[in-house]
Design a protein that fits this description.
The chain is an alpha+beta fold and 199 residues long. The chain is built from three helices and nine strands, in the order αββββββββααβ.
């Protein structure tokens, strides 16, 4: 009887040690996997998920006038210039994955991923494709190149604000969620919650 009891105690102790070791091993593996996944994602740094290509035409004008001596309010336009500016560019939106945070809940077996909300990463005018055409001008016309660039910059900023108001950044967030869910699933994390936060 003592031998059976001793064997039973040894068996239970062995079982307990084996299951605890397995549990610790599983926890360690899941923690390691989580850290590895986070490392892979952080390496991507800025993650562009949405690109919008645009082209635009603007009409720009400058004029210089002078007052004829003795005629008061009479202005005489002598150097008006009108330019047609055609340009194209692109707008990119995405997130900064260097601020990504991942935590794994052992009890619920759920992965929580906190991601910075999308922002505009680039708004670039392709200057090599920009075309400027004279519509009106004369020998007195002086049209500084800076005026052309200033007009383009104002217009591209307006376009950026317009696209944001139309939900461009929300669409980028949706794409990030789909891509992250797919990435995490292929890495063995089927149950993942993705939260977007302002940083």
């Amino acid at each position: 009887m003592k031998k059976i009891l001793l064997l039973l105690v040894i068996g239970l102790a062995g079982y307990f040690i084996f299951t605890e070791t397995d549990l610790i091993s599983t926890r360690t593996n899941r923690s390691s996997e989580t850290a590895l996944v986070q490392e892979k994602l952080v390496e991507l740094s800025e993650w562009t998920t949405l690109k919008y290509e645009y082209s635009n035409v603007i009409i720009s004008r400058t004029d210089k006038s002078f007052e004829l001596f003795g005629f008061g309010d009479l202005d005489f336009d002598y150097a008006e210039a009108i330019k047609l500016i055609e340009y194209s560019g692109y707008l990119k939106a995405g997130t900064d994955l260097s601020k990504l945070q991942i935590t794994y809940n052992e009890e619920t077996k759920q992965l929580l991923v906190r991601v910075p909300k999308s922002q505009i990463l680039d708004n670039v005018v392709e200057t090599e494709k920009t075309r400027v055409e004279d519509i009106k001008g004369n020998i007195f016309s002086d049209y500084p190149s800076q005026v052309i660039f200033d007009e383009i910059n104002v217009n591209k900023q307006q376009l950026e604000e317009e696209k944001i108001s139309q939900g461009f950044l929300d669409e980028a967030d949706n794409r990030i969620e789909v891509l992250l869910t797919s990435f995490l699933s292929t890495n063995g994390f089927e149950d993942a919650v993705i939260e977007f936060e302002f940083y």
